[in-house]
Design a protein that fits this description.
Radius of gyration: 20 Å
Low-confidence stretches: none
Structural class: mainly beta
Largest sheet: 8 strands, antiparallel
Order of helices and strands: EEEEEHHEEHEEEEEEEEEEEEHEEEEE
Shape: globular
Number of strands: 24
Strand content: over 45%
Mean pLDDT: 90
């Protein structure tokens, strides 16, 4: 993306004269940011907890609901599966981003696991996103609380107002499927132009006697309706630059990692980014096999981070 005149920087936060946070009630939509003009969001940060603000009230509620350990140690964060992040660029009716906070930041299984990639991560209680998000007229960010309890939210977004000469709109596409025998999991299938930047993939095997055999599946990326894949990896963990079913367990690197691994529960969460971009002109399709012949039962979900080129 080409940016012109990027010297003006500004910020939107949840800070007000009384508090640093906002309370998002059950079922409520909180319009966090309404940015106008032309420019791009350079980073988004947030953290949250469930319940009302105030240490005493929060502590009593946590004890009553037997969640003190999870909330104090910030381990199990299932409530973030029901806190939805929505981002709209340039007045689009449908959100360009519409995914739970948990899935967007790498917590597809509701588990906080620290990692600090180049683009998204969880670092010592916070969540950050460094994807560039350009817009020509406006950017609106919302948080939707689908929990039965209130959420205390802290957030900030840094942006720059400047001229944008070409718009590739940021997308975060979520999908989830119960795997079908003989058919691959479709992580992304889009038409038009743009580029693929990476994904978070959450894999859950359903048969104890097959353990992590779903990782035998290949990952293929098809560009511009080609019958031959542009990228074709020799196994699922190989795409994420691991080996032997992530033999040494969880790890985090700048552009790839295994965030969560459980032999007992047959769960794997992994991320991979392509900083050099995988460009496409007329479409992209990403398939993930589950087992050598798509024979392993499971439930897969994913968030794909990509950019869709504006058609003028």
């Amino acid at each position: 993306m080409d940016f012109v005149g990027t010297d003006r920087i500004d910020q939107v936060t949840t800070r007000n004269k009384d508090n640093d946070w906002v309370v998002v009630e059950p079922g409520a939509v909180y319009e966090f940011a309404q940015i106008t003009g032309c420019g791009h969001v350079s980073d988004l940060w947030m953290t949250a907890t469930i319940g009302k603000p105030g240490f005493a009230e929060w502590m009593i509620a946590a004890i009553k609901k037997d969640r003190l350990r999870d909330l104090v140690l910030y381990d199990s964060l299932d409530f973030l599966k029901n806190l939805i992040l929505k981002i709209f660029f340039d007045g689009h009716e449908s959100p360009d981003v519409n995914v739970s906070v948990a899935d967007f930041f790498g917590m597809g299984f509701g588990k906080y696991k620290q990692y600090d990639s180049q683009f998204v991560g969880m670092t010592s209680g916070g969540f950050y996103c460094n994807f560039e998000m350009p817009f020509k007229k406006s950017c609106r960010i919302e948080f939707v609380n689908n929990n039965s309890e209130a959420v205390v939210l802290y957030a900030e977004a840094t942006y720059r107002n400047h001229k944008v000469t070409e718009t590739n709109y940021f997308r975060a596409s979520y999908s989830k499927s119960i795997l079908e025998k003989g058919k691959p999991y479709i992580m992304l299938d889009e038409t038009g132009g743009g580029y693929y930047l990476g994904c978070n993939l959450y894999m859950w095997g359903q048969k104890p006697w097959k353990h992590l055999l779903f990782l035998e599946g290949d990952i293929r990326v098809y560009i511009d309706r080609s019958e031959k894949p542009a990228l074709n990896y020799t196994g699922t963990e190989d795409y994420f630059l691991g080996g032997w079913y992530f033999a040494k367990g969880e790890f985090a690197a700048d552009d790839h990692g295994c965030i969560y691994k459980s032999w007992l529960h047959r769960k794997i969460a992994a991320y991979r980014f392509h900083p050099d971009k995988v460009n496409f002109s007329s479409g992209i399709r990403i398939e993930v096999d589950h087992g050598e012949n798509n024979e392993v039962d499971g439930v897969y979900s994913s968030v794909v981070y990509w950019y869709h080129k504006e058609v003028v």
